[in-house]
Every structure is written in C-alpha cells, then in structure tokens.
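stage 2 :: seqdesign
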C-alpha cells in the first residue's frame, strides 16, 4: 500500500516526501518483490517527489517550520506506533510524525499487525486522542473487490480522505447502496 499511496499522490502532482525505515526496505523486498531503491529512482524523476534518509535528522521535515499538509505512515509497525504514543522519535520517520502531532497536522496511521493486543490498542487510542487517524487496511467487501488491487485502491482512497485529499476512485469501486 505504501507504493500505491506514493504513486497516487504523484499522479495528482501532490508534493510528496518519502521516508523509509531499514525494516520497511526489507519488508518491501519480501512482500513486493522489488528493490526499494529501484522504485525510489523512478519516483525521483517526478518533480513533486523528495526523499530523505531515515537517519537524516537535519532534513527539513524534522522541523515544524517545514510546511506540510500532513503525513501517512503506511504500513505503520507496532514499534512505530508505540514510539509515537510514548513521545520517542529516534529517526526521521518518527520525528516527522511527532512534528505532525505537535503542530496539529494530519497524521494517518495504517497499522500493520493483526491480531492486536491491549497494548497495541492502547497505543492507537493514545495517538487517536492526540489527533492521529487510524486507518486499518480492511477490505470493503460490500464493494465486491475483484482482487488485491481493488482492496489496495480502496485503502489508498481512505488514506486520501483522512488526509483531506480528493481520492482517485474507479467508478466500479464507489458504494452506491443505501446511506448508513
């Protein structure tokens, strides 16, 4: 979903800064089957894209004076969620997210784990009470997804809505049933 989120932001020419932890690079390779650096090279061709190394705490996004509309962590590990809930920001990803919280900017977290135990839930509750939006990557079965791409597109659309952005949503993935 991280790749699809960045791709969707860039298709809409929304300025996008990507941060990727070392663990996320490993997961990227395992789950997507492509090298993160290869995708990074492709994204860097887009004029609205910027990337900073995870340990570059001098990067502009580490400061509240850097203007952003918000941030999404997709996927958000329970380690990142626990760190944020407890005010620990030992890398650029966590520092940028902490800046969003302190500046009251949108912070959207797409948790990676399931099932969740009470500490996971407490950490997410703490972050929600601080203004973060939790978007579990759950399929909308009522839309009758035809495959994984439909599910990913739906979750990316929910991320966009949570950030206050207009999502790209194919006509066949729009809910047309009764209002709830």
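stage 2 :: out
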């Amino acid at each position: 979903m991280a790749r699809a989120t960045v791709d969707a932001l860039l298709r809409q020419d929304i300025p996008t800064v990507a941060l990727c932890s070392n663990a996320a690079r490993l997961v990227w390779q395992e789950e997507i089957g492509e090298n993160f650096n290869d995708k990074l090279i492709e994204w860097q061709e887009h004029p609205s894209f910027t990337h900073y190394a995870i340990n570059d705490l001098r990067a502009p996004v580490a400061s509240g004076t850097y203007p952003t509309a918000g941030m999404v962590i997709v996927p958000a590990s329970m380690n990142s969620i626990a760190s944020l809930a407890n005010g620990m920001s030992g890398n650029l990803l966590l520092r940028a997210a902490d800046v969003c919280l302190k500046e009251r900017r949108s912070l959207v977290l797409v948790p990676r784990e399931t099932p969740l135990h009470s500490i996971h839930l407490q950490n997410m509750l703490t972050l929600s009470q601080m203004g973060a939006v939790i978007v579990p990557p759950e399929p909308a079965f009522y839309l009758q997804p035809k495959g994984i791409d439909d599910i990913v597109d739906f979750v990316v659309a929910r991320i966009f809505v949570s950030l206050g952005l207009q999502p790209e949503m194919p006509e066949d993935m729009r809910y047309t049933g009764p209002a709830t």
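stage 3 :: structure notes
- The longest strand covers residues 70-76.
- The chain has a mean pLDDT of 93.
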